[in-house]
Amino acid sequence: MLIYTSCSDTPESLQQQQISEELPPPPPPPAPPEHKGDLDIPFAAIEKVPTYPGCSGDNETMKKCMSTKIAQFLNENFNTKLADELNITGMQRIATQFKIDKTGRVVDVTARSLSHTPELEAEAIRVVKLLPQMEPGEQKGVKVGVLYSLPIVFEVVE
After folding, report:
1. 123, 82 in Cβ contact below 8 A?
2. What residues contact 67, with CB distance under 8 A and at least 6 apart?
3. How far, in Å, CA of 117 to CA of 122, rounded?
4. Is residue 102 part of a domain?
5. For residue 25, is it within any domain?
6. Number of domains in the chain
7. pLDDT, average across residues 127-136
8. Nearest-CA neighbor of 150 among 118, 119, 108, 117?
9. Does the CA dihedral 122-126-131-134 come out positive or negative?
10. What is the DSSP string of 95-108?
């Protein structure tokens, strides 16, 4: 029901008139979006860590195995000669971050070096993208993306 009131100050116009209209009911609110499995969980907080090929055991053992295997992979594949080519000396630190998505692929790789050397950052990204596919991590029984931070540190001695 719609009620109309006049804004005039004459007594006749102060009368209220009722105008009746049939309005359709409002539509129901949309269902909330389903977020199951769309969350990204930090590696340190995940219930079931992603499984790196060749790792097995309980969650803590799997975390240690994965970290060891990733470090070994980086040591074998990172081009340390790049520092010589760029005439870089001393301790080099590159902070990398990536996500192991809910299918087990390494995605969203970023890197930043303290020396702000784009070539070192690009090499870190290249090597991290070469990591093998893994079994995805799980949170409450649902496959989720797992965020992983990986510092790459090496020293270039003259």
Report:
1. yes
2. none
3. 9
4. yes
5. no
6. 1
7. 96
8. 108
9. positive
10. EEEEEE-TTS-EEE
